[in-house]
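Retro notes, structure queue

What went well: the backlog is down to a handful. What didn't: a couple of records were mislabeled last round, so from now on we paste the full input next to the output in the thread. Example, using Prolyl oligopeptidase family serine peptidase from Meishania litoralis:
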Amino acid sequence: MKNRLVYIVFLFLFQNCASQATPNLIDDEYKAVTTEVFNYYLYFPDDYEVRNDEDFPLLLFLHGGGESGDSLVTIKKNGPPKLIAQGKKFPFLILAPQNPHKKKWWNTEALIQLLDTIVDNNRVDRKRIYLTGLSRGGGAAWELAVQYPKKFAALAVVCGMAPVPYASWIDKDLPIWVFHGEEDESIPVSESENMVARLKSMGYNVLFTKYPGIGHNSWERAYNTDELYDWFVKQRKAE
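Corresponding output:
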């Protein structure tokens, strides 16, 4: 009886090991389809209808995490949408979508689909599409510059997370301006410092503005910098 029990245990272990040694791999395919719904503001310059034979530049603005959700009016709290609400005039179109997910990153693939739709249906100069974002939107701006390196004529990032490995994937002809508060406790200034240092070491054209004594809300000063918008309109992709 004892020998029979030992034999059964041995047989079980042998069969189990044999089954593990020859796994059964299955090839298959799954097509994932996702849908994203963006609410957005689209600003037109005052002379857009008057100069109806011209194409205009467009600025894509990506807000921070605090403005995510389903209340579009919240994106008027910061950046160009805030300035527009206060009466500021811009010489280009501004597309300001809202990230519908409070706790998720921007869906950058869906953003490009939205951008392309706006460009296709309005008089937009495709060589003068600009990109900017703050905080979580700044991180998404870096990501878009990596994933779509030929799409944008200029990039401005305000206190965004900046994975240094992105540096080698960004178009070397892309003008970049980075802003960050030195006392930022949410996204440390080192995020921008390290990225800018890597880009400059590789020969990129990068401007870097640091604000002493300023925390995470460096966007208040950055987007009130008139030189930023003058800088944007000077940028154009090469023929």
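Agreed that this is the format going forward. Reviewer comment attached to the example: The two ends are 88 Å apart (CA to CA).
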